[in-house]
Write a structure and sequence with these properties.
This protein is an alpha/beta fold. The protein contains 12 helices and 12 strands. An 8-stranded parallel beta barrel has the order 3-4-5-6-7-8-9-10, surrounded by 6 helices. α4 links the parallel β6 and β7. α3 runs parallel beside α4, α9 packs parallel to α10 and α11 packs across α12. The radius of gyration is 21 Å and the shape is globular.
């Protein structure tokens, strides 16, 4: 089931009180997705944290109306979030609000209050505990009605879908295809561990008694669905916020598979996430060299070759595609080249 809204996914959008994370040009002229190496959770009910988050170097902030807000604080938190989005300086950050899930009584009012009040200063709405595609479609329809009513650009606000239980994972392909607004599939490990009765109380850590990676299937299942539909994939939080080494280990696992970023719950995790989900300077330089070399060798001046040598390495179209990924991540991370390509003499 697909939502009726037709809109391209946006890489970034300007606003009056700051700017969203900027789009970056790919080597083939396309725009790269928003950087989401570090996605900072911010309680919507805490004015102090709402203010502090604006000065932290996270790629994305999501202002939370769900688990981080007690039931009695949710209504007030909606208005605090609206004020923070409209008056705060979120320059360089993707601005997201996590609403409550559709099984609660709060969801529709979360969306209406936040989007009517600050829709022009909002990039995405995160929907937790998504179990089937209809829930994303419902959010898409509600966003469309609000945008039309308020005179906003229809389809500009994106959606992030959070997979937090077995049913959501089983349906993740349909969820990933559910709406053109969808930008990201997010893994929610704590609720997921509970939903499958995993024998561990430490979110993200391997359960005792299982020698292999207990999360490999889950992460790969989310990643395949995301990539099939040109979406980003983001890993969820590591709750031991003082254990930076543990965070690095868990984040490194997701980054190695190809995830785009990870949630951070504490400022001390931001630097590690930004580093782990960025290419190294060496890999970034090498990727840019591959792109330059391939462009040269396939050109008239370079002999119109389908494959060529870059030093001791043979490169071809597959090499170019791999290099585009690394170069795009490096550019989004703000890396600058330290090498340049020199065409070989004819």
């Amino acid at each position: 089931m697909t939502a009726p809204v037709s809109s391209a996914r946006r890489a970034g959008s300007p606003n009056a009180a700051g700017s969203a994370a900027p789009a970056s040009a790919g080597g083939d002229g396309t725009e790269q997705p928003r950087p989401r190496r570090s996605c900072l959770a911010v309680p919507g009910s805490s004015p102090r944290f709402l203010e502090k988050a604006q000065g932290l170097p996270a790629d994305q902030v999501f202002l939370d109306l769900e688990d981080a807000c007690a039931p009695l604080a949710k209504e007030g938190a909606r208005h605090s979030i609206v004020d923070a989005l409209n008056t705060g300086d979120w320059t360089g950050k993707t601005r997201v609000v996590r609403v409550n899930d559709w099984t609660t009584q709060w969801t529709y009012r979360d969306v209406i209050t936040v989007v009517e009040g600050a829709g022009q200063n909002l990039d995405c709405v995160m929907l937790p505990k998504v179990q089937d595609a209809r829930q994303v479609v419902a959010l898409d329809l509600l966003l469309t009605q609000i945008e039309r009513t308020m005179g906003f650009e229809v389809g500009r606000i994106g959606i992030e879908a959070q997979i937090e239980n077995a049913k959501g994972l089983v349906n993740v392909d349909d969820i990933a295809a559910s709406s053109p607004r969808l930008e990201t599939i997010v893994f929610g490990p704590a609720d997921f561990m509970a939903s499958i009765n995993m024998k561990s109380l430490v979110v993200g850590r391997q359960p005792a008694g299982y020698d292999a990676d207990a999360y490999h299937y889950i992460l790969m299942r989310i990643l395949m669905a995301a990539r099939t539909h040109d979406l980003q994939a983001v890993d969820g939080p590591y709750l031991q916020i003082r254990d930076v080494d543990g965070f690095r280990e868990v984040a490194g696992r997701a980054a190695a598979l190809g995830f785009d970023g990870k949630w951070v719950l504490h400022p001390g995790q931001i630097e590690a996430a930004n580093e782990i989900f960025s290419p190294s300077q060496e890999d970034y330089d090498h990727a840019e060299l591959i792109l330059d070399a391939y462009a040269h060798h396939t050109s008239e001046a370079g002999g119109k070759k389908g494959s060529a040598m870059l030093g001791d390495e043979m490169i071809d179209e597959a090499s170019r595609k791999m290099a585009l990924v690394i170069a795009g991540k490096g550019r989004a991370a703000g890396l600058r080249r330290t090498t340049s390509f020199e065409a070989p003499e004819a």
